[in-house]
Each structure stands twice: as C-alpha cells, then as structure tokens.
Amino acid sequence: MTQTLSIRALNRATLARQSLLARERTPVAEAVGRLLCMQAQEPKPPFLGLWTRLDDFEAAELHAALHDRTLVRATAMRATLHLMTAQDYTAFRTALQPVMDGAIRVLGDRAEGLDVGKTADAARALLRERPRTFNEIRALLQEKFPDVNERALGYAVRMCVPLIMAPTDDRWAFPRASEFALADSWLGSAPAAEPDVEALMLRYLAAYGPASAADAQTWSGLAALGEVFDRLRPRLRVFADDAGRELFDLPDAPRPDEDVPAPARFLPEFDSLVLAHADRRRIIADAHRPSLTTKNLRVRAVFLWDGFARGTWETEYKRRVATLRLRPFEPLPPEAVEALTAEGEALLRFVEPAAKETNVIEHDAARAIDSE
User: Fold this and answer.
1) 3-class state of residue 304 by DSSP
2) Which of 78, 111, 128, 357 is 20 to 30 A from 245 in CA distance terms?
3) Could you read off the pLDDT of 186-206 as tens digits, one per residue?
4) Chain segment 129-187, per-residue pLDDT in tens
C-alpha cells in the first residue's frame, strides 16, 4: 500500500534538504550544489538565502566562488537567472533548452523577421571578442539586423546562447548592467552535448522532494515529465499526498518526523523554495499564496515559523538605522515574535553591518493583509 505523506511531513522533508532545519557548516559551492540552484533574478537574494542556511556565512565566500568560476549566475530553470555550480550548469543547460525555446514564443509580433540561428551566431562572434553588456549586444546586433526589433534580438541571444554573467567587486557581486560572457569561454568547456533530463530530475528530488511530476514541471519549466518519472520509477520510492497525488523521492533521502522542530527563518525575495512546486502547501497555505507575488511579478520575501510561510518581510536603512518589518498573514504567537525578532536582528547585522541601530517591527496582521 502506498504511504501517504501529510503536508507537515512534506514540509519537514523539504526543509531538511534545504538546510532550513538547522544551519550547516558547509562550503558555499557545496551548499549551492546541494540546493541544485538558487533563484538569482536579482543579485542580492542568493547572499541572503545562503546566510539563512549556513553557519557563519560571509559574503566574501560567495564572491570568491563566483570569481574563481566555481559558481555561476546564468539563465536556467524557467528561463530565469539562477546561481548554480559551474559543473551543474554545464551538465544541465542543454536539458533546459526547450524551456528557452518556448520562452522566445512570448515575443509574438516583435519577433517578425527574427532569424534565431543567425542572431545567435552574430552574438557569439561579438562575445568571442570580449564580455559585453546587453546594451552593447543589442546595439551591435541592431546594426547588423536593422529591420528586427532590438529587444527581440537581445532576448533571442539570452535564450539561445549559453551565457555566464561576469561578477565584479560590487557589494552583491553584480552591477545593474552586468557583462555577459560565452559559457564555453568562461568555463573552459561547453554545455553537455546531449540533454540528461533524468539526471536533472534526480537532482531536483534530492533538493526539493518528495515531489510530483507536476511539481518538477513547475520548477523547471519543462513539459511531459510524467514520462521521465515513469522511466525513473524503478529507482525511486513512490508516496501519495493528502489528495492522492503520486509523489516520487530518492530512496535514501531525508524524511524526518513531521514533529521535528523548525526554527524561525527568513527567505529572501525570489527564493527557489517558494517556487519549486505546483502544490506549494508544504511551504505556504493556498489562502496566503496570492500575497506572495506583487502586481509586477516580484516574489516577496517570506519568513518561516514552525516551517511554514507566516508572512512577508522587508528591510529599510535610513540614517544608519536598519529596520526589518514583519507583515504576518495572521496574528503571531509571542514565542514566534520573540524568535523572529532575534533572527531578524541577526539578519540586519549581516545586511547592514554599518548600522548603529537595528529594529524588528511587527505590523498588525489585519493591516498587513489589507495592504497587499
């Protein structure tokens, strides 16, 4: 008989793999590899995501791993920017190309006259000379293809040419207008010639399982993964969720007791954990899920209490005073406020080390919900 896993059991299993039940003393590159990827649509969130997962994390560690090219920031899952190990990027970039191809279709009429192959070849020639910003790339491509929409030219390059974003000494490692380099030039090796979707799914389960095929499709952007999991079935354990949906997992992956304590934690904007499943109840209740995303599609930072997202948070820095505002979905118990305040003050000291004063402020739950 198939074992059914409760929402709390799924929560604890996923938190264990995400280093969110206890901070770990792990090298940065190894930690990112265990997570498989970290959403990096903006440069700052991965620093905060690693701080909340690792013991004594320092920003210099991530800087060093980016500059020695052990870690890379590049387009990957769902055709968005992620932080990955160089090894994982070269292993899985080809498997994700169908996602990139699908993303190009959103251009619609703007793609009139666009020849993706010729555009990609021209961009490679430009980038073999040196890394360039996309402002440069678009302008130079427009000279070559004057009748094609400039934005369409740039987007085609982002999706169809494997690129690595070049780090700098900026505080969060990347300026607003970053330069991009060809992946094979930056890493000294090209992405794998053949896609290995099965290996990618096994790594997904290691970082985010137990999970369904629909969960994996939501996380990756790939389609028809039910067939992939059917091929992998002999190597996996099969469970069910509370709705009877089939969940897959690695046989030896951690699945701690659902009553294992989960500490207060702060997840940054765009954290991969809140985007990794079609059914996200293991992290955030369906009733609160609409509050997760802003009107312009920013994914809000959330805080966890007893393992689940209980509200959003943001910081402000003025006159050397660092403030973290908690915006709970519902009233929090006193012990939660106490734990989140201590954790929030530690986070503020990491984010704003020059602050003379740190404050964690809990907003009224009803007002916080109304403000969404």
Assistant:
1) strand
2) 78
3) 999 999 999 999 999 999 999
4) 999 999 999 999 999 999 999 999 999 999 999 999 999 999 999 999 999 999 999 99
Amino acid at 149: N
Q: Report d(CA 199, CA 354) in Å as an integer.
A: 44
Domain count, the chain: 2
Residue 51 structural domain: 1-93+162-283
pLDDT at 178: 96
Q: Taking Cα atoms as reference points, which of 221, 85, 104 lies closest to residue 158?
A: 104
> 249: alpha, beta or left, given left = phi > 0 and alpha = psi -120 to 50?
beta
Question: Model confidence at 371, in pLDDT bands (50, 70, 90)?
Answer: very low
209 and 181 part of one domain? yes
Q: Do residue 195 and residue 53 come from a single domain?
A: yes
Helices (H), the chain: 7-17, 28-35, 45-51, 59-67, 86-92, 97-104, 116-129, 134-144, 150-160, 183-187, 197-208, 213-220, 225-232, 334-351, 365-371
Q: Could you identify the residue written with the tokens 């002999």?
A: 234
Q: Which residue is listed with tokens 């013991």?
A: 55
Q: State the Cα–Cα distance between residues 287 and 210, nearest whole angstrom.
A: 22
Instruction: Name the percent of the chain lying above pLDDT 90.
Output: 95
